[in-house]
Amino acid sequence: MAPMTSSARPLLNRRLAEFGTTIFAEMSALAASTGSINLGQGFPDTDGPEEIREAAVRALRDGRGNQYPPGPGVPELRMAVAAHQERRYGLSFDPDTEVLVTAGATEAIAATLLALVEPGDEVVALEPYYDSYAACVAMAGGTRVPVTLRPHEETRDGVTRRRFRLDLDELRDAVTDRTRLLLINTPHNPTGTVLTRAELTEIAALAVERDLLVVTDEVYEHLVFDGAEHVPLATLPGMRGRTVTIGSAGKSYSFTGWKVGWVTAAPALVSAVRAAKQFLTYVASGPFQYAVAEALTLPDTYFEEFGADMLAKRNLLVAGLAKAGFGVFEPAGTYFVTTDIRPLGESDGFAFCRALPERAGVVAIPNAVFYDHREAGAPFVRFAFCKRASVLEEAVERLGTLAG
Ligand SMILES: *Cc1c(COP(=O)(O)O)cnc(C)c1O
């Protein structure tokens, strides 16, 4: 197709130039053309609860949400989000002024950064990061300042685990007079790290000391394993008023296609985020908002069963990857496992992932795409385990030929 303008100027603007293509498109195409099992992209291959799907059908049939819902979200959902935060974490939010429904966590992240970041502001974020963070900081005209999570061995209760750890001194050093906010993600995608209460307490102390806003992406709040505890940053001293917390029905209820997410924060923060959000989608997912309101009132046994199911899948994949010769960082949360390919005699995750479909019929994602310091992520590769057990078993069998 001919370009729309004859000038030599590139079509994609300078802010987004570096985000032109995504690895997910390339890898999903490879999966399709080679008939590989796609453990690259993180979406479940089984849908969320039947009764919640039925609730969406009912809302559609009853004409609830078929026209523009209210800008902040339907009251039923805002009340359900507030009740969930109260019940799970003892955090009390006013559904009218402190809850905002968004088009998934993705829009919550975009609107929050567009609202709060001034051109030239620095945004400190944990690296590797979820892929939309860098693009949204760029769209807001901000500068991203990555703090790298580093591989680390820890022995607890006689068991040695490998985990990606936050260096709190590095975080402290990353904060300057230009820092506008800290962008935190726990449980952390792609490493599976769940920040501990001690780590989060230090982050909170830093935010208070330097008077920073904190945006915390907690979409995996219900996916924590082995007794790990998800601690919402907003529960820690001094944080309730300075924290924007982001959640999503996509990850918590296995409805990633519904794009229902939310923000909880103090009224002034919610107002600011809403100012940006109203010009992005204005509103989204009308009937699904009613269904998610019902999902949020499911008894906690839903989360227990969901967590137990994901734990079994994690264990299956982790064991298979270890047996296949990968170095494995057993995740304490999320539905991803990060591996080290060096024990397999490899060092370049990009090359490894490009060859893996041909070699073993499995698709994974090179973690380097989630880093600014590409070299820090080079030997790491991410697999998703939110797939049916039979799919994971087949993937593990195929990967078993690698060491061979
Ligand atoms: C999946 C994901 C999101 C996006 O969530 P949606 O509700 O699907 O928009 C945001 N952050 C992280 C860390 C994720 O893994």
From TrEMBL:
This is Probable N-succinyldiaminopimelate aminotransferase DapC. The lineage of its organism: Bacteria, Bacillati, Actinomycetota, Actinomycetes, Kitasatosporales. Homodimer. Its main location: cytoplasm. Pathway: Amino-acid biosynthesis; L-lysine biosynthesis via DAP pathway; LL-2,6-diaminopimelate from (S)-tetrahydrodipicolinate (succinylase route): step 2/3. Keywords: Amino-acid biosynthesis, Aminotransferase, Cytoplasm, Pyridoxal phosphate, Transferase. It comes from Streptomyces fructofermentans. Belongs to the class-III pyridoxal-phosphate-dependent aminotransferase family. Pfam families: Aminotran_1_2. InterPro entries: Aminotransferase_I/II_large (IPR004839), Kynurenine-oxoglutarate_AT (IPR051326), PyrdxlP-dep_Trfase (IPR015424), PyrdxlP-dep_Trfase_major (IPR015421), PyrdxlP-dep_Trfase_small (IPR015422). It is found in: Cytoplasm. GO terms for cellular component: cytoplasm. It catalyses: N-succinyl-(2S,6S)-2,6-diaminopimelate + 2-oxoglutarate = (S)-2-succinylamino-6-oxoheptanedioate + L-glutamate. Its EC number is 2.6.1.17. It comes from the Bacteria.
